[in-house]
Design brief:
The protein has about 600 residues and is mainly α. Helix 7 runs parallel beside helix 10, helix 10 (about 205-215) packs antiparallel against helix 15 (about 305-325) and helix 15 runs antiparallel to helix 16. The strands form three sheets. A three-stranded parallel sheet has the order 3-4-5, with helices on both faces. It contains 26 helices and seven strands. Keywords: Glycosyltransferase, Membrane, Transferase, Transmembrane, Transmembrane helix.
């Protein structure tokens, strides 16, 4: 989306008439590439099936919950969840995974189309052929192919960033030297779309802020217009935030609490950054673009156009820094892709009037790099994970299930059995709590509530989906993403798997306290039962008791508004990992 300062007349004759056609073909290459690669590499991740279970709970009338009867927000993207619900409802009998993967691919392709259109809009004063630059870099990355689908919100993120770029670019006046006379709220859809960032992902509020600043800078200076735009942008996120506080008794999704989204682990974060950027030689195309910017003075003309170009770049850089700060993620490249997409959006299109320009040289370098990256550059951990727990998730689950790109539940031969057993046993009236259903030597306890059929597992996607939506058929998350209690237990950074985002595994005693018959436990292990009894007592006292009631009591209007009042304190609530210490802290001596 960046233009050259120096202009050149359109070539005369045949060359000039061919320029639009050549531009169309060239700009279509990365779009076609990501469409084909995304469709070919379509798959549902295990985490994607966490979303799928919530979709089925909603359609079953249990609300946006993971387990019926316990209100916990296990989905990070509100907007993506409800798009999945719509896709599932509109496709009738098709499994949610099928509609989810195709919706993700379509949204990813739409994101590429939108940033390309925005680039054409910003570069229209410049002559020559329009060629892809940033979009070609993105389309050549294998992680982009994988996370075009996956059942996660990544494709939606690409589409939303692209939509914001396009909506801002099309508001600019034809003459870049003039200032727009539009107030910030017009067209009304622009601030509304910009405000959706926190509903795409809470951390996308950073992108919303950058795009909002660009909107103000490209609009008529009018306080009333800015205030109207702010109301339009904030209305939906604020309404949902009130719903979140009242329904879930929290100000952020439970995943943010369990993953310590406000913490920092710079060492792991830089490893995560290097894992993406070094594997695919990304400095090569990025330095080529930087050199072209410095040598060719490719900044767009006009204050408004520069603001539109700067917004996604700065937001993408800051988002990348945030991801590095919190330690990255366990999925290879996934969390860095939105930031990279945004940083390259201002460079989606370059205009080339001559082969001797810096823009032409940059496109040539990118094309050469892409010809190597597409067929040859791949991550290789020499096994399931690298030394810090990063995984090529699609390849890993394909290997485990023996199916390239598992999509439907029938493709998941690895993890479906425990969940299917829960559904089957619950329907047959068999009640128990199994801390580890994959270990035949692990103990099985009678359930605390007769009629409940409960298992605990560290991978709760396909297992939870297979368990069904019946109340009492419960899948407990050992890593706390779907557990509102253990998500707040203080276990330290070392308290779980040695993988980013999977360090919150609370002691088993907290799950025993909630799901097992402690009289039976006492017969087998009196010490364990005593510790579980301490945890059980703590669960009924003070703020911890308030949290338990807030997520399990019937949701009346008084309960809803009480949850709204409690949400700030309960969001930051920290529970000591030792049950005796927790009981003393919440119940007193």
């Amino acid at each position: 989306m960046v233009t050259q300062t120096a202009t050149a007349p359109e070539p005369a004759g045949t060359a000039g008439s061919l320029a639009p056609r050549l531009s169309l073909v060239a700009l279509g290459v990365p779009i076609v590439l990501i469409a084909i690669a995304g469709a070919h590499r379509r798959w549902m991740s295990d985490d994607g099936y966490i979303n799928a279970r919530v979709v089925e709970q909603i359609l079953a009338g249990n609300g946006p919950v993971y387990n019926a009867g316990e209100r916990v927000e296990v989905t990070t993207s509100t907007l993506w969840l409800w798009l999945m619900v719509a896709g599932r409802a509109l496709t009738g009998g098709l499994e949610v995974g099928i509609s989810a993967v195709w919706l993700g691919v379509a949204l990813t392709v739409a994101g590429f189309v939108l940033v390309t259109l925005a680039g054409l809009r910003l570069t229209r004063p410049v002559g020559g052929i329009a060629l892809p630059a940033g979009t070609l870099v993105l389309a050549a990355l294998p992680p982009m192919w994988d996370f075009a689908s996956s059942g996660l919100e990544t494709g939606l993120g690409f589409c939303w960033i692209g939509a914001c770029c396009w909506l801002l670019a099309r508001r600019l006046p034809t003459d870049p030297a003039t200032v727009s006379d539009l107030p910030a709220w017009r067209p009304l859809g622009v601030p509304v779309v910009i405000g959706l960032g926190p509903l795409v992902r809470p951390d996308f509020a950073l992108f919303s802020l950058a795009f909002a600043i660009a909107l103000v800078l490209t609009s008529r200076r009018n306080v009333r217009g800015v205030l109207a735009a702010a109301v339009a942008a904030l209305a939906l996120p604020l309404v949902y935030e009130v719903f979140r506080a009242g329904y879930f008794a929290a100000l952020v999704p439970n995943t943010a609490i369990a993953k310590d989204a406000s913490g920092s682990d710079w060492s792991a974060g830089f490893h995560y950054l290097s894992d993406l950027y070094a594997t695919y030689w990304l400095p090569v195309p990025l330095l080529a673009l930087a050199a072209a910017l410095l040598a060719g003075r490719l900044l767009p003309r006009g204050r408004g156009a520069r603001a539109v170009a700067a917004a996604p770049f700065l937001a993408g850089a800051l988002h990348t820094l945030y991801v590095v700060r919190v330690g990255g993620d366990f999925m290879h490249g996934r969390m860095l892709l939105p930031g990279l997409f945004a940083m390259l959006a201002p460079l989606a299109v370059l205009r080339v009037a001559s082969l001797r320009t810096p823009a032409a040289a940059a496109v040539a370098v990118i094309t050469g790099w892409a010809l190597v990256a597409v067929p040859a550059l791949r991550v290789d951990y020499g096994g399931a994970f690298d030394r810090q727990g990063l995984a090529d998730e699609r390849s890993f689950w394909s290997m485990i299930n023996g199916v390239p790109g598992p999509v439907t539940s029938a493709d998941w031969t690895y993890a479906g059995l425990p969940g299917a057993a829960v559904r089957r046993d619950h329907a047959a009236g068999i009640s128990y709590y199994k801390p580890d259903p994959t270990d035949p030597d692990a103990p099985t306890w009678p359930a605390a509530r007769p009629g409940d059929t409960v298992i605990a597992h560290a991978a709760i996607g396909i297992i939870g989906y297979e368990a069904g939506t019946a109340p009492g058929a419960l899948v407990v998350d050992r890593l706390s993403l779907a557990d509102p209690i253990t998500a707040r237990v203080d276990v330290g950074r070392e308290g779980g798997m040695a993988r980013p985002g999977h360090t919150q595994e609370a002691p088993e005693v907290w799950r025993l306290a909630r799901y097992a018959d402690l009289d039976t436990v006492a017969v087998a292990d009196p010490g364990l039962a005593a510790a579980a009894a301490e945890a059980s007592a703590a669960l009924g006292c003070g703020e911890l008791g308030e949290l338990s009631d807030a997520v399990t009591e019937s949701l009346t209007w008084p309960r809803f508004w009480r949850n709204v009042a409690l949400a700030p304190a309960l969001t930051t609530l920290s529970i000591p990992g030792d049950p005796a210490t927790a009981r003393a802290a919440f119940c007193g001596p």
